[in-house]
Structures are given as structure tokens and as C-alpha cells.
Design a protein that fits this description.
By secondary structure, this protein is an alpha/beta fold. It has six domains: 3-104, Roll (Archaeosine Trna-guanine Transglycosylase, Chain: A, domain 4); 113-204; 207-289; 302-480, P-loop containing nucleotide triphosphate hydrolases (Rossmann fold), CATH 3.40.50.300; 485-601, Helicase, Ruva Protein, domain 3 (Orthogonal Bundle), CATH 1.10.8; 619-790, Ribosomal Protein S5, domain 2. It contains 27 helices and 24 strands. It has a seven-stranded mixed sheet with strand order 18-19-17-16-20-23-24. Strands 1, 2, 3, 4, 5 and 6 form a six-stranded mixed sheet that branches. A five-stranded parallel sheet has the order 8-9-12-7-13, sandwiched between helices. Strand 5 (75-94) and strand 6 form a beta hairpin. Helix 18 (485-504) packs across helix 19. The chain is elongated.
């Protein structure tokens, strides 16, 4: 295909342009008239046709077609329609003729119709401002207003832009429409900024100065500009030197250093008044602040690390053991190896704080990055610097904040990532968390590889259900079960109460909570698997104690309307308390007993269900798992005369509804002869707390037991609960969340629990104080379930 070289011209696709004939050689004009389709390719510098070589051509051009020739004011013009962008190769020269083969390039259409209209309006506005003082400006404004699309506007306004040849090529070569138009817009804004400065200087000069003192005014203006320039250059030079020194001292890899030096060169050329000054400054500041050198690895003392974990967290022995193993391997290897740890458990079970303790145990910096609600992939990988307001991703921002290259990074709430049209953040995390890839992680903003292999990543989640399988496969799940009442008691007394007293200004010995009061607080005022609610209730008690202590000392803050008086009173009482301690006098003390809790905390906040006192036919007790821990639930069934219909209520999900139908089928199958007439009975199954959605397969044996109890009119044994999925063959299948379910059973006063035989191994994860107080019967078939729950043989 014929190639027409052009220089110092911006040409875009899908527009009609007029080109003077004298731009082309006579031979090219003949070829154009003969072939009418050709490629317009920009060249890097102005040369005669015979001097051109293949290296003089850029590799992207525009396919064009000659439409006609017109005569305008004595000049012959070619009218051309530009078509697709093409990539050229195999450039050949035949005398004055240049030929090349090509392939068509597709544009990435990443701009909405609404954005296109907005940009076109902005282009037209700038163009009208440029021509308003030119001869024929009114006619030109009418022509501008007839522009139909961005390519036409950009091509016409491109000749005015103060950009170099390389920048013109980058505009034409950009695949992304959004990037292409934003590059043009930046050039326009730069031009308008220059025009505004020129206009401002001109307007300051009066007509009298222009006529009488023109030479003097110019000299004064030059002197003023020179003084300002000297000041700006002095500040700018110091910034440039600072960044050059930082780049040299940062210890970057060669690739990163080259990129930083390239940006520094652009920074020095741009100047402090340049359009990109702020963007380049922010990038250089980021890349030089980032830690590139390997810091001195602190030797880890396992005994001390264990001591730190024990001091910060009560219980969680399984978690501590696995964390110590990971710390030991990391210490020996010098960098994290193996799987990334994922702490999964209910809120308030110590997942995030465990990550902080790991950092303390390893002597490393701690960084917490919350992933909850992130829906944009750029939040992980960063934004490309071509976009306005580009920022690094949260991972690199966290590394920068830590000022080291080997911190402990806790990726909090990884199950709360959101997938939508802006990308998939979970997929972006695959590279971050993969030890085989993260040694060369490329953040789009940084644009060079960064080694994340030395970072110790820990993830947290409430549940693994929302985590994509490929991401979950890169992590080792460590489940944090809810705390038992005994563990909550110890945590409250040893950790939470002292911390709450310290934060409210109470001295040691000024507040005492009786053992019975703390146990009642745990059972009646907290209903979560963790201890976050317990901490809030203890804070209330401490605030109550502070008020009582001040009242005992004679201060009445409730009657005071002056904040200064309140503060003075509190300071005075605190000083008196300190003086009393020095003199050996007893400090005033508040003791909180069981009977005081309703006055301090109000009515009970926990509304847990408890085991039924009276057994009723058709009612069975099941066990459920929630993100807040375990709960017991009742399955109620009644029968009425009808035609064999089954009704399900209580906001049951699809899986639970199927379990109910399956259980009903099993009952009809096994008790057809004994009960009969199923087609003349209507069954209604209800699970109380109808406002709460319920779903899952683990209520299978509970539904079977409730229906069997109803038809045989035989009540289920007292204080017995069960959990397990059932198959159509009558097999009892394993379930999840067993530790939390058994804790709920113990809390509710259940004495006997039926669990699937295949879950026996999970009992090792259940605290001994729970298993020792429950009679746990493994069952493998519905015959076992009927025997243990109803005392019948099938």
C-alpha cells in the first residue's frame, strides 16, 4: 500500500480533511489519483523524500482515501476521508515512492455517549475562545459549532496545540478513546493557560504606555519576569536536586531507577509552572519514599513471640500454634513461604488484633488495609498515571506508609470485596497473594515491578463463602470459633476490664465487678460469638463508676452547666485521689453486683432461646450457625385434615424447603403402613422468628424428627438437640460450624446433642469445658436418629 509521509500534523481517523497539493510530490499526486487509497504516516523529522529511511517512520498511521480535488482561492486541495488506524511494517522504497504492508488497529471504545458530548462541548468552548479575537472570528465560530464529533474537533484544533511531534503521535497511536481525548484536552488546556498569561500581561499595560513608553515597558516586564523566574527556578532546582539525590540513595532496581530518572527528566523540562508539575511531583515523591532496600531482619525469639501472643489473646491455642509455625519458618527462611493465612470467624473473635500481635512478635511494622466494599480493581492495582487524579493502589500505599519493604499486612474483610462493571478486585489480589508471582508485582501507578515476597500477608474474613475459589485456594483457612462463656469471663476480667478502666481514667482498685455480675453480664447482655459486645458493656459500667466516684467526692457534674467547671472538678478529684494514694489512704471504690446490672445497662440485650421445659409431639430442637455464632432453633409441625399438602413458613430458604420435602418423603417411605392416609393430611411446618431468614441443609434430621414425632404423637426427649443433613437413602451427612453449634446448645441448657458420625473429628476443635458437659451421640442413619431422639426402632 502507498505510504504518504507527513510531519508536524495531527490526523485522526474517521474525519474529512483538506490538504494542499503542494504538500505532496508530483509522483505522490499521480499515485493518489491512480490508487485513491493510501496510508498517511507521521515521520519523526522533516526530510526530503529521497532521504527517508524505515527508522524515520512511526509504526502507526491512518488509512485514507482521496475523495475529490477542489480549487480554493487559487490553491488546489485534496479532499480526503480518513478511515481506520493501522500499524505498518515492511516499509519499502522505490525511488520516490514509499510502500508498506499494514494491519488494522481496533479502537478501545471506553467512553460513554454522555462523556463524548461533554468533551465535545469543552473542545468547542476552547476553540471559540481561541478564535474570538482573530479576523473572521464570527465565521469561524459558526464553523466550530457545526463540528459533529470529537475526531473532527480534535483534528481541526490540533494545529493550534503547543505540542511536539512525539506527543502528536502518542495521541494518534492511543488505543483507548478516553486516553486519546484526554491527551488532546491536556494540550488544549496547556495552550489556554499560555494564552491567559499572555492576555493578563497585555491587559495590564495601558494604551499610553504602549504608545509612549513601549520600549521601557518591555524592559520592565522582562526584568520583572526575570526576577520571578529566578525565584521559581531556585525553588524548582532545589526540588529537582532533592529528587535526584533520593533516587540515587533509594537503592532501586535498575528498571525502577530508569523509570524514576525518566520522570525526573520530564519534571525538569516541565518546570514549576507546567501543567503536569503536580502529577510528576507526586509520582517522584511516592517512588522515592517507597522502601526499596532490604531492611535488617530482626532475629525472632520464638519464646518471646509466644509470650506476646499469650499476653494479647486468651485461648485460640490452635491459631497461636499455626501462627508460631509460620513465624518460625519465616524466621529461618528470611521471607514468608507457603500459604497465606486466612483467619475466618465471627466478628469480635480477635482476627484483626491477632495480625497486630503477629507483627509485634516478629518485630515488624504493622499495616492494616480494609477491603470491605471495594469494587474497583484500581483500588488494588492502582490507577494509570494518564488519568486525572491517579493514585497508587492500597497495597503499595500501605507499603509506603510502613516505610519498610517487609511489614506485616493485614487484608481485613477480604470476604466483603464486590464484583461489578469496574472490575474484579478479588482477581487483582491473586497476583498479590501468590508467592510465585508477587516478587514482581506491578502497580499501574508505579509502573515498575515491586517485590512483595518479603511482606507477611494475613487475611481476615467472617466467612469463606464470599471468597472466589482461586483466591481461597492461595490461602490456608484458620477458623476462629466463638468464645465460650468461660473464655469470655477470663477475657473480660484479664483484658477488657483493665483496658476499659484505663481509658476512662479509673485507677486500679477503684472499680470491682463481682464474679456473679460478670457472668450474668456475659449471659444476659451479650449475644455474639466474639467479645466486642462485652467490651461495650464494660465501657458502660466504667462510665457509670466514674460518675458515682465524682458524686461521692461531692462533684455533681449533672447539675453543672459550665464545661470549664466540670473539667476543673474532675481534675481536682483526680488530684485528690492521687494524693490519697500517696498518703496511704484507701481510694474510693465502686462495687458492681448482679442486682446493679439492670440499673446500669438497662434491660437484657441477649434473647437466646433455651431448651423447652415440656416436650410436645411435633416439636424438635435444631442447631444453626450464623456469622454471630451458634443458635438453637425449634422446628414445629402440626397436621390437619386435607389433601396431602405441605406448607412451610418462617422465611425458609430454598435449601431448607427442599430438606423439609425430603424429610416428609422419608417419613412417608418408612411409616407408610404404620401411619398411612398421608393424602388426607395437610402438614404445616414452621420455624419461629419469622422475620429472620433461615437456610441450609443441616436441619434435615431435625425436620425428620419433628414430622416423625408429630405422626407418632411421641414427644422428643427433653433437652435434646440435633444437627445433620439427611439424604434420600436415610444417611446422615456432615455439616459445618459444629463448634459454634455445640456452644449454643450448652448455653441453651441442652444436655444431649446428636451430630453426624462424619463430624466426630471436628470435636477436637470444641473446647473441653463444652464437650465435658454435653452427651454427644454420633449418628449415621435416620434409624439412629429415631432411636436416640424418640426411643423407637425403625
Amino acid at each position: 500500500m502507498l505510504v504518504i509521509p507527513v510531519f508536524d500534523t495531527l490526523i485522526l481517523s474517521n474525519v474529512q480533511i483538506n490538504v494542499q497539493e503542494d504538500v505532496f510530490s508530483q509522483e505522490e499526486i499521480e499515485h493518489i489519483k491512480e490508487e485513491d487509497t493510501f496510508i498517511i504516516v507521521p515521520i519523526k523529522e522533516q526530510k526530503e523524500r529521497g532521504e527517508l529511511t524505515e527508522s524515520d517512520f512511526y509504526d502507526v498511521g491512518i488509512l485514507a482515501k482521496a475523495v475529490s480535488t477542489i480549487n480554493h482561492e487559487g490553491n488546489a486541495l485534496f479532499v480526503m476521508d480518513t478511515q481506520e488506524r493501522v500499524r505498518i511494517h515492511d516499509v519499502a522504497f522505490d525511488g520516490g515512492r514509499v510502500e508498506a504492508s499494514y494491519e488494522i488497529l481496533d479502537d478501545i471504545v471506553d467512553i460513554s455517549e454522555q462523556e463524548e458530548h461533554a468533551l465535545l462541548a469543552e473542545f468547542k468552548q476552547y476553540a471559540e475562545e481561541l478564535v474570538q479575537n482573530l479576523p473572521g472570528g464570527v465565521w469561524m465560530r459558526g464553523y466550530i459549532r457545526r463540528w459533529k464529533n470529537l475526531n473532527e474537533a480534535a483534528t481541526n484544533i490540533g494545529s493550534y496545540l503547543d505540542i511536539n511531534d512525539r506527543e502528536r503521535f502518542e495521541i494518534m497511536a492511543a488505543d483507548s478513546l478516553k486516553e486519546r481525548y484526554h491527551l488532546i484536552l491536556e494540550g488544549i488546556r496547556r495552550l489556554m493557560g499560555t494564552k491567559a498569561v499572555r492576555d493578563e500581561v497585555t491587559n495590564k499595560m495601558t494604551q499610553e504606555q504602549q504608545d509612549a513608553y513601549k520600549v521601557m515597558a518591555i524592559k520592565k516586564q522582562m526584568k520583572l519576569l526575570e526576577e520571578q523566574l529566578n525565584v521559581l527556578e531556585e525553588d524548582f532546582a532545589s526540588e529537582e536536586e532533592m529528587f535526584a539525590k533520593k533516587i540515587e540513595e533509594a537503592g532501586m532496581p535498575e528498571e525502577a531507577k530508569k523509570e524514576a530518572e525518566r520522570v525526573l527528566k520530564r519534571f525538569s523540562m516541565e518546570g514549576s509552572q507546567g501543567h503536569e508539575y503536580g502529577t510528576l511531583y507526586e509520582y517522584l515523591d511516592f517512588v522515592t519514599t517507597l522502601s526499596w532496600k532490604d531492611g535488617a531482619e530482626k532475629k525472632i525469639n520464638l519464646a518471646k513471640a509466644k509470650q506476646i501472643l499469650e499476653k494479647d489473646h486468651y485461648g485460640l491455642e490452635k491459631v497461636k500454634k499455626r501462627v508460631l509455625e509460620q513465624i518460625a519458618v519465616t524466621s529461618l527462611k528470611g521471607k514468608p513461604t507457603g500459604s497465606i493465612l486466612l483467619f475466618a470467624g465471627a466478628p469480635g473473635t480477635g482476627k484483626t488484633s491477632m495480625g497486630k500481635s503477629v507483627a509485634k512478635a516478629m518485630g515488624r511494622e504493622y499495616v492494616r488495609i480494609s477491603l470491605g466494599g471495594i469494587r474497583d480493581e484500581a483500588e488494588i492495582r492502582g490507577h494509570r498515571r494518564t488519568y486525572v487524579g491517579a493514585m497508587p493502589g492500597r497495597i503499595m500505599e500501605g507499603i509506603k506508609r510502613s516505610k519498610v519493604n517487609n511489614p506485616v499486612v493485614v487484608l481485613d474483610e477480604i470476604d466483603k470485596l464486590t464484583l461489578d462493571y469496574q472490575g474484579d478486585p478479588a482477581s487483582a489480589l491473586l497476583e498479590v497473594l501468590d508467592p510465585e508471582q508477587n516478587h514482581s508485582f506491578v502497580d499501574h501507578y508505579l509502573n515498575v515491578p515491586y517485590d512483595l515476597s518479603k511482606v507477611f500477608f494475613i487475611c481476615t474474613a467472617n466467612t469463606t463463602e464470599g471468597i472466589p475459589e482461586p483466591l481461597l485456594d492461595r490461602m490456608e483457612v484458620i477458623s476462629l470459633s466463638g468464645y465460650t462463656p468461660i473464655e469470655k469471663y477470663q477475657i473480660g476480667r484479664k483484658y477488657l476490664l483493665p483496658k476499659a478502666m484505663e481509658e476512662t481514667g479509673l485507677k486500679k482498685g477503684q472499680l470491682s465487678i463481682t464474679q456473679g455480675a460478670l457472668k450474668k453480664l456475659i449471659s444476659n447482655y451479650t449475644m455474639e460469638a466474639g467479645v466486642r459486645g462485652l467490651r461495650k458493656q464494660l465501657d458502660k459500667i466504667c462510665r457509670y463508676a466514674v460518675v458515682k466516684l465524682l458524686e461521692q467526692e461531692g462533684a455533681e457534674p449533672n447539675k453543672s452547666t459550665d464545661m470549664a467547671e466540670d473539667a476543673a472538678s474532675l481534675e481536682e478529684n483526680t488530684s485528690e485521689a492521687a494524693k490519697a494514694k500517696e498518703d496511704g489512704k484507701a481510694l474510693p471504690k465502686i462495687t458492681v453486683k448482679e442486682n446493679d446490672l439492670p440499673d446500669i445497662l438497662g434491660k437484657k440485650a441477649a434473647n437466646h432461646d433455651f431448651a423447652l421445659k415440656n416436650a410436645i409431639p411435633g416439636v424438635a430442637t435444631g442447631l444453626a450457625w450464623t456469622q454471630a455464632g451458634g443458635e438453637i432453633l425449634f422446628v414445629e409441625a402440626v397436621q390437619t385434615e386435607g389433601d396431602g399438602k405441605i406448607q412451610l413458613t418462617g422465611q425458609l430458604g430454598d435449601v431448607m424447603k427442599e430438606s423439609a420435602e425430603l424429610a416428609y418423603t422419608l417419613v412417608k417411605s418408612y411409616f407408610a403402613e404404620q401411619i398411612g392416609n398421608f393424602d388426607k393430611r395437610d402438614i404445616h411446618i414452621h420455624v419461629p422468628e419469622g422475620a429472620v431468614p433461615k437456610d441450609g441443609p443441616s436441619a434435615g434430621i431435625t425436620l425428620f424428627t419433628a414430622l416423625t414425632s408429630l405422626f407418632l404423637q411421641k414427644p422428643v426427649k427433653k433437652k435434646l438437640a440435633m444437627t445433620g443433613e439427611v439424604s434420600l437413602r436415610g444417611e446422615v451427612l456432615p455439616i459445618g460450624g459444629l463448634p459454634e453449634k455445640l456452644m449454643a446448645a450448652h448455653r441453651a441448657g441442652i444436655k444431649t446433642v446428636l451430630i453426624p458420625e462424619k463430624n466426630v473429628e471436628d470435636l477436637k476443635e470444641v473446647p473441653k469445658e463444652i464437650t465435658e458437659k454435653l452427651f454427644i451421640h454420633p449418628v449415621s442413619t435416620i434409624q439412629d436418629v429415631a432411636r436416640e431422639s424418640l426411643g423407637i426402632k425403625m
